[in-house]
């Protein structure tokens, strides 16, 4: 079994890479499983993976490191009940210190499992995070940089969005910052790029000792607490078949209202479900908000799951979302039922194990 552990900031492209990798591996006859992770409990990523026909377990309500038992329980379940050859585990995008809290404990309690830690970074956001200008607060940036530091493989993702000159500048910047790191320049939308990443994870020298991060948990905790997590599950009902239009309006409005207030978006994810069909929509600070809902037919009823991770206070984000819901209901004559809501700031990170090497 190979445990392919993915880390990296919110929206860097982990789920996209896992989804494409699973499809390619399944076509080659491999059994694959995924463990998703989030501090929330209603996860767009889990439902998206399941809809894509990928065997998926989840660790919810905390990061992997703060719930090591749940992580290993899921791992064992995938191994014993489903006999998977390979597990992809996507850690939540605000989490770091995985060498001490996951890799070293796994090694101590489970022996020599083959593990690779791929850390994803958005090629557009990376130069900003490493440079002098700032989008996120210093404490959030601190998490971002610690994540990169502990990578076995540093995946510079979304390179399809860069001009060749931008790519050359980024290449020299990263080589200066991380001279000893193995780097992979990737577009997770492209088959060849995913195959290259998989090949790199397969051939990585797995059993060499990894150095634990030197990390200040107070800054780490402050960084996590700078972000608000908002999860809303709703139903849009329209007797005139306007639920799709209402969903589009809601998503555009949320994007606009958050950006107008200059609130940095970690990730704004939506899963829209209408009957048998579903669509995931995703926006980050670096990504513009052009999109279309592609569910077919006249839509009377839609379900929508919103996972918003934004740098602001919980009240601000709740105020924006509630206002947008009211406006959309009024303008479109749709009924919006809130099925589940949760708004919170992640608590101080208290890992189950912390083994230093
Ligand atoms: N252009 C481009 N877009 C990408 C690439 N990889 C991912 N994306 C887009 O980036 C956005 C975020 O991707 P996800 O895979 O959901 O990111 P994530 O790291 O799983 O995000 P979290 O689960 O919130 O931490 C989506 O809109 C993807 O389509 C890429 O290589 N190129
Ligand atoms: Mg994800």
Layout of helices and strands, plus pairs?
Elements: E1 2-8, H1 14-27, E2 32-38, H2 44-51, E3 56-60, H3 68-80, E4 86-90, H4 98-110, E5 114-122, H5 126-130, H6 138-149, E6 153-157, H7 164-177, E7 182-185, H8 191-203, H9 217-225, E8 227-237, H10 243-260, E9 265-274, E10 277-283, E11 301-311, H11 314-332, E12 335-344
The structure holds guanosine-5'-triphosphate and magnesium ion.
Detailed description of the structure:
The protein has 357 residues and is of the alpha/beta class. It has two domains: 2-223, 3-Layer(aba) Sandwich (Rossmann fold); 227-344, Alpha-Beta Plaits (2-Layer Sandwich). It contains eleven helices and twelve strands. The chain has helices at residues 14-27, 44-51, 68-80, 98-110, 126-130, 138-149, 164-177, 191-203, 217-225, 243-260, 314-332, and strands spanning 2-8, 32-38, 56-60, 86-90, 114-122, 153-157, 182-185, 227-237, 265-274, 277-283, 301-311, 335-344. The strands form two sheets. Strands 3-2-4-1-5-6-7 form a seven-stranded parallel beta sheet, with helices on both faces. Strand 2, helix 2 (44-51) and strand 3 (56-60) form a beta-alpha-beta unit. Helix 1 (14-27) crosses helix 8 (191-203), helix 6 packs across helix 9 and helix 10 packs antiparallel against helix 11. The two termini are 24 Å apart. Guanosine-5'-triphosphate is lined by residues 8, 10-16, 45, 93, 120, 157-158, 160-161, 187-189, 267, 282. Pfam families: cobW (PF02492). Residues 5-184 form the CobW/HypB/UreG nucleotide-binding domain. This is Cobalamin synthesis protein P47K.
């Amino acid at each position: 079994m190979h445990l392919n552990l993915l880390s990296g900031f919110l929206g860097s492209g982990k789920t996209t890479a896992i989804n494409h990798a699973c499809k390619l591996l399944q076509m080659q006859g491999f059994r694959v499983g995924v463990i998703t992770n989030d501090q929330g409990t209603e996860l767009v990523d889990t439902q998206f993976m399941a809809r894509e026909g990928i065997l998926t377990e989840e660790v919810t309500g905390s990061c992997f490191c703060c719930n090591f038992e749940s992580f290993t329980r899921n791992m064992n379940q995938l191994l014993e009940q489903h006999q998977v050859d390979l597990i992809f585990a996507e850690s939540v995008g605000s989490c770091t210190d995985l060498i001490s809290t996951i890799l070293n404990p796994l090694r101590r309690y489970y022996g020599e499992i083959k593990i690779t830690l791929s850390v994803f970074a958005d090629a557009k956001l990376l130069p900003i995070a490493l440079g002098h200008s700032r989008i996120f607060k210093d404490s959030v940036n601190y998490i971002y940089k610690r994540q990169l530091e502990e990578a076995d493989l540093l995946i510079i993702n979304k390179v399809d969005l860069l001009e060749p000159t931008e790519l050359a500048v980024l290449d020299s910047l990263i080589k200066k910052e991380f001279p000893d790191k193995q780097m992979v320049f990737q577009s997770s939308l492209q088959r060849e790029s995913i195959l290259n990443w998989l090949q790199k994870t397969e051939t990585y020298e797995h059993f060499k000792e990894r150095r634990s991060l030197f990390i200040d948990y107070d800054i780490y905790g402050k960084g996590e607490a700078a972000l608000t997590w908002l999860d809303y599950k709703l139903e849009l009902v329209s007797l005139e078949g306007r639920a799709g239009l209402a969903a589009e309006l809601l998503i555009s409005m949320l994007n606009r209202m958050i950006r107008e207030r200059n609130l940095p978006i970690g990730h704004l994810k939506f899963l829209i479900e209408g009957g048998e069909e579903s669509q995931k929509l995703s926006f980050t600070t670096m990504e513009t908000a052009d999109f279309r809902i592609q569910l077919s037919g006249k839509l009377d009823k839609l379900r929508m799951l919103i996972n918003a991770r934004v740098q602001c206070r919980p009240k601000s984000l709740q105020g924006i979302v509630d206002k947008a819901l009211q406006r959309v209901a009024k303008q479109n004559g749709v009924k919006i039922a809130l099925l589940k809501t949760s708004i919170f700031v992640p608590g101080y990170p208290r890992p189950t194990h912390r083994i230093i090497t």
